[in-house]
């Protein structure tokens, strides 16, 4: 699908489609007809900058956030190597490019002779991701592509231990910034490969590994049009839930819904994300904002959709306690904490 190419879309309140009952579907509907805007700057890079990443320490844990060093810009040689490498292989086709959300998987840690394994892993991973709502109900809105990247060595760095180093096309590595389950990647190399696909909306790096891990680079706005990159280990089913969670941010434009008491209480302007609000249930209903249509209805995670008190994750700094944020729209892969 054609989408806005700047970060503006991420901070603009989404128009909730009248027929769609799920935020992700609303996003797809709202962005489907958007016209392209001038290209956004390249993803941040350079030795003096950092990237914000989200990760999980284990399948049952809450997401955490940290800053990791940004990769250096690609050299001419690296750019050429990526350009000369990699074939784009269709995995699932539900319609012409541009008419659907195009999911692009890029493989890392697969040698030239393992590309068949990569394609099989893409099918498996997509099956695991799309088994989760809202993907399950909207499967036919997606095309899925595999972009081959030939790594010199099989497997990825940091698997199983921190001293393991592998020469791979995208530089996937566990123990990123010393955190075992944080699976980082060179996002500039990812861009070089993902941009081979015609219209990438969602980019997932599959790192050839059985070890649990992943990462969400949700602050990236790519020149190719996608917002954010999710990484996951290819042969670990639990890692698929990392992808589901991170694409809730990058594609669904949804905020986290869990509580870190140390962040204090949000006191800023009405958030742009469609699943959180400062308004009460009565105000949402009166003003016909956000999830007002579903207040009082049963929720896919059990219980009743209603006003739920909680606190937004505030990644920057704590704010003084004063009035709470209300949010009640569950999303896939997110632990909704009700207080
Ligand atoms: Zn999150």
UniProtKB/TrEMBL annotation:
GO terms for molecular function: metallopeptidase activity. InterPro entries: MetalloPept_cat_dom_sf (IPR024079), Peptidase_M64_IgA (IPR019026), TAT_signal (IPR006311). Residues 32-72, 314-339 are annotated as: Disordered. The keyword Zinc does not apply. Keywords: Signal. Residues 1-25 form the signal peptide. The keyword Signal applies. It holds the Pfam family Peptidase_M64. PROSITE patterns: TAT (PS51318). It comes from the Bacteria. This is Secreted protein.
């Amino acid at each position: 699908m054609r989408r806005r190419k700047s970060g503006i879309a991420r901070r603009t309140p989404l128009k909730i489609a009248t027929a769609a009952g799920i935020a992700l579907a609303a996003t797809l509907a709202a962005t489907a007809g958007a016209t392209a805007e001038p290209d956004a700057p390249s993803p941040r890079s350079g030795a003096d900058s950092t990237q914000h990443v989200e990760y999980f320490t284990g399948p049952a844990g809450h997401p955490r956030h940290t800053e990791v060093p940004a990769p250096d810009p690609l050299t001419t040689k690296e750019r050429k190597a990526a350009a000369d490498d990699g074939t784009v292989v269709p995995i699932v086709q539900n319609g012409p490019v541009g008419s659907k959300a195009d999911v692009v998987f890029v493989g890392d840690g697969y040698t030239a002779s393992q590309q068949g394994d990569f394609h099989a892993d893409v099918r498996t991973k997509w099956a695991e991701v799309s088994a989760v709502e809202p993907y399950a109900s909207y499967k036919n809105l997606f095309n899925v592509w595999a972009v081959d990247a030939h790594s010199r060595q099989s497997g990825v760095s940091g698997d199983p231990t921190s001293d393991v180093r592998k020469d791979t096309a995208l530089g996937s590595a566990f123990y990123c910034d010393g955190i075992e389950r944080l699976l980082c990647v060179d996002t500039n190399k990812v861009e070089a490969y993902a941009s081979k696909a015609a219209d990438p909306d969602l980019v997932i790096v599959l790192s050839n590994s059985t070890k649990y891990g992943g990462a969400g680079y949700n602050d990236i706005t790519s020149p190719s049009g996608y917002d954010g990159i999710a990484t996951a280990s290819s042969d670990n089913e639990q890692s698929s839930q990392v992808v589901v969670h991170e694409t809730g941010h990058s594609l669904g434009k949804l905020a986290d819904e869990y509580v870190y008491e140390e962040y204090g209480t949000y006191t800023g302007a009405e958030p742009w994300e469609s699943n959180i609000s400062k308004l009460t249930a009565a105000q949402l209903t009166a003003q016909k904002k956000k999830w007002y249509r579903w207040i009082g209805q049963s929720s896919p995670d059990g219980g009743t959709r209603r006003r739920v008190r909680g606190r937004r994750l505030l990644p920057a700094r704590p704010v003084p306690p004063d009035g709470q944020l209300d949010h009640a729209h569950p999303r896939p892969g997110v632990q909704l904490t009700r207080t």
